[in-house]
Write a structure and sequence with these properties.
6-stranded antiparallel β-sheet, about 35% helix
């Protein structure tokens, strides 16, 4: 099993459920994306360049989907969190129900256009 997959499958159920749903959406929207394990977290790469990562914050009890060029994103900025980061902004999910697929797809699309 690949390290990124192992990371995901070893998460507690709540985090695993959120991550697996994000993974399905990302891979459907970006079929050329490659899931790697970098800096001890699952990281999607496009054309050998980092695109976004998924991090389960057990302390904060949420899952972050962080985009490398997050501060350049212009749409849906009210959904993006950028606290204490220079370039990343993320979508933060505390439950599976919080995933708005339309917004997520639009942010992925915009991030892709910046990539």
């Amino acid at each position: 099993m690949k390290p990124a997959e192992e990371y995901i499958l070893n998460q507690p159920e709540l985090y695993k459920e959120i991550i697996l749903n994000l993974q399905v959406i990302i891979e459907k929207e970006l079929p050329n994306a490659v899931l790697l394990f970098k800096w001890k977290i699952p990281y999607y790469y496009l054309n050998d360049k980092p695109f976004c990562f998924i991090n389960a914050s057990h302390k904060g009890k949420f899952v972050d989907l962080a985009f490398n060029k997050g501060y350049q994103l212009q749409n849906h900025t009210d959904y993006l969190v950028g606290e204490k980061r220079n370039t990343f902004k993320s979508l933060r999910y505390f439950s599976l129900d919080e995933i708005d697929v339309t917004i997520l797809k639009e942010i992925i699309s915009e991030a892709y256009s910046l990539h």
